[in-house]
Amino acid sequence: MxxxxxxxxxxxxxxxxxxxxxxxxxxxxxxxxxAASRTVQxxxxxxxxxxxxxxxxxxxxAQGSYSLTGGAATVGGSGFRFHSATGAYDxxxxxxxxxxxxxxxxxxxxxxxxxxxxxxxLSRPTVSISGSTGALYLDVVSKARDTGRVTTSAQVxxxxxxxxxxxxxxxxxxxxxxxxxxTLTAQGARSFAGYYTAGTALDPVSLSADVRPAPKKTPTxxxxxxxxxxxxxxxGHAIEDGxxxxxxxxxxxxxxxxxxxxxxxxxxDGAQDGGALFRFPSGRGTYDKGALDASFEGAVRxxxxxxxxxxxxxxxxxxxKGRGTLYADVAGERLTASKVPLVTFAAEEFTAHDxxxxxxxxxxxxxARGAKAFGGMYPEGTAMDPVSLAVxxxxxxxLPALPDLGSxxxxxxxxxxxxxxxSAPAEPVAATGDDSxxxxxxxxxAGGVLAVALGAGALHRRRARAASTGSGSGTVTGSGSGSGSxxx
Length: 488
Description:
eight-stranded antiparallel beta barrel
């Protein structure tokens, strides 16, 4: 009778569907079959943008420079480090999106008016990965070479990222991607003020980001109304808390860890490392209508070859009539003394708002005594790293967060320029008008069609082989569910 074969076919189809679901679940890493999107909080992104562009900007033709903003740092020989990743990661699908803080500004070809013909700021990089495709977005402020018009654009799709077969699925507590090839898009080329054409190879991108555990559902209860009120210090009385952030000088840090000094720095007594700056916390002192006299905890000691040994401790800050001075006890080869005035900085805006008085990245200049502390390496008046200062005047005021570099067990490998990038001429070439968006060269981690019963084992082997041939590398790690590498 015809109804039985149709019923049998329906039963077989149902069984195959159940089997397919079971196989797909088995192929996912442990703990991710039902994983929800999880919060990304903390981490760093390392990228040199384009090493030949850096050489051109700082070389004899452009005679320019670059400066860092928002806590960005340098890493390796030619890389920039962006910090404090925020975003989301879905271990089941591999979808990942994280935004990093900090920026870098390039200037060159100084004009008679005092401005620059070349003026480009790249900041707030965002990496977005969905399936087998990846993209890098940036906030861009660029000055057109021909008209001088300045354009500000938010989250420009600046580059495509080649995943090279990396399987982004996983259930761990960190996402680490090293040396992903980056290719300039048509939109990125326009934002780059036409210095490079679409399809140009940029420096590779490396990142690490912490992934928080999925939140547990807990019964919600209405919080009891608070009967306490914020405690406010009267003018001229003790502050509640405070912190001063200062990186000393970027080129000095690079000298310490570079090929000449081959040294390091060590933080003690509560000082914290923010990548491009050191935080001296636990401020104690008095504030009175913009005037401050406060001390902070922590010490930093720089050591290295050729007799390098310099320690700065007992940091103090005084602000008087809109001018700030940062002091420290100095122990060094040329000077050992207490309360040495190291740098001065502008603090006209050091007024209280909502219980917090702060100055952010105020330009700082080296004093005469500070020059002696550095053994004459820098003369008086040298621009040092900017100073950020914040003091809490009420017990509920929150100090600015320290740059969060994440908790990856090892540092992200510094970006290594690709062959195409490293062999490019020092001076950028003019655009040719090619606005075609380059095709993302991504090798898929698995085939597009799954043969449920017979092809499952073959798919697993193909995915492992595809990942092993990728040009980048990536891992999704975790202590709770084991460690899964790309393609596993």
